[in-house]
Amino acid sequence: MLENINPRAPLSQTLNKIPFILQIVIGLIIGIFLAFIFPNDKSIIPTFGTLFVKALKAVAPILVFVLVSSAIARHKKGQQSNMKPIIALYFISMLLSATLALLMSYIFPSSFNILSEHVDNVSAPQGVSEVIINFINQAIDNPFTAMINGNYIAILIWAICLGLMFRAAHDNTKRVLEDLAQSISGVVRIVIRFAPLGVMGLVYSSCTAEGGFTNLLNYVHVVCVLLGTMLLIAFVLNAIIVFIATHENPFPLILTCITRSAITAFFTRSSAANLPVNLELCEKLNLPRETYSISIPLGCTINMSGAAVTIVIMTMAAVHTLGIEVDFGTALLMCISAVLCACGASGVAGGSLMLIPLACSIFGIGNDIAMQVVGIGFIIGVLQDSTETALNSSTDVLFTAAACKRAERLKKAKEAKNTSE
After folding, report:
1. Residue 396 in contact with residue 300, Cβ under 8 Å?
2. Which of 11, 158, 174, 342 shows a CA-CA span of 20 to 30 A to 308?
């Protein structure tokens, strides 16, 4: 998808010689350097990051809509799409991630000595039923309004429905839909080319924000537990899951997903903005287009291992602070609720942090205290939200690739069995 650009132009020749990921790293270093030299710039340098994220978010809804509907329209009866194994991997990963987060909160209990931060004008869901109702309300939305507001649940529903209807359309109509998907992918290629400049602006904004990273010093312990758990998931738990699925060394694939997807997701802090990057990576991995054009947008909506980790660890920190005695069974119920609610975290304002009061309510923690925990979450969000997004987004590609490799392995085993017979 990111083929060499304009090879005749001198600047393009230079850029084509430098690996794209290295260009992003260079942009990152320049952003940090500029933050030390010109820390007071509030207009020019930060605008690069703002414009990059805006461009990705602008193109992502129409990209998801067209790619999903086009993929379903092209799908022929009996053609393997691997969606069931991918969805199974998503939910298994989220459940195991939430359980690991619970164990980490017991082994390394965190507490908040000062629960005094308040968040004004915040509306959090008060129960699982409200989350389900919100999900249904988002699913049944005007498609044009959904694209404008970035309502990916409704976009996916409309794309799936129209894709199913297009399966009965004339071949020429399907070809037009395919051409439209290719054209929008071309626009995405142009946007992604500006990633080094975008990362530079985003890093600069993070380094020069009010308080910067110094606010994290008051909550180092909980930040370390959060990041440590997410790293264990990325390099240990996911490695085990991928190995069981593929029967191959999982680390080359994991490292590829982290370097090509997690890094950009870390700085954009948006799974939606990282959608084009993930689709680009799936194409480079030579995965079936009819699979990843559906699984990646779907994963952006329901694959939320990082969100489940955040909900569990922050809630258990509040439990430890208040001295509430919790048996493991009740805590495990909270984990299951965290997994179910995390699936809709992308559709709730404030993401996973805004679902903490819901988890706290299981232990009888009042909304006032819970919202103070949410306030702490916003303070540590500089690292928490970025790492959570990186984990969520990169595993979309990881499990899609794992399911495709599993399908190839089973196919070869079946062919070998038939040959021997």
Report:
1. yes
2. 158
Length of the chain: 421
Phi and psi at 228, nearest 5°, equal -60, -40
The pLDDT value recorded for residue 212 is 57
CB 348 within 8 A of CB 357: no
Among 92, 47, 383, which Cα is nearest to 238's?
A: 92
Scanning the structure block, which residue is given the tokens 């006032």? Answer: 368
Nearest one of 344, 392, 301 to 128, comparing CA atoms: 344
pLDDT, mean of residues 303-323: 85
Taking CA atoms, 39 is separated from 42, 134, 266, in Å, by: 9, 41, 22
pLDDT exceeds 80 at position 129: no
Write the CB contacts of 358 (distance below 8 Å, at least 6 apart in sequence).
Answer: 124, 125, 126, 127, 128, 131, 337, 341
Q: Are 127 and 361 in contact (CB under 8 A)?
A: yes
Mean pLDDT lowest among 12-16, 37-41, 223-227: 12-16
pLDDT at 214: 55
Residue 215 C-alpha from the chain's centroid:
25
> CA triplet 93, 339, 326: central angle to 5 degrees?
110
Task: Encode pLDDT of 15-56 as tens digits.
Answer: 666 666 677 778 878 888 888 888 888 788 888 888 877 777
Amino acid identity, position 111: S
Spatial distance between the Cα atoms of 229 and 331, rounded to a whole number of angstroms: 17
Q: Is the distance from CB of 319 to CB of 326 less than 8 angstroms?
A: yes
**Hey, what amino acid is at 158?**
W
Residue with tokens 């191959």: 248
Please state, in angstroms and as integers, the Cα–Cα distance from residue 24 to each residue in 30, 73, 129, 377, following that order.
10, 36, 43, 28
What is the chain's Cα-based Rg? 22
Distances (CA, A) of 11 to 17, 28, 150: 10, 20, 35
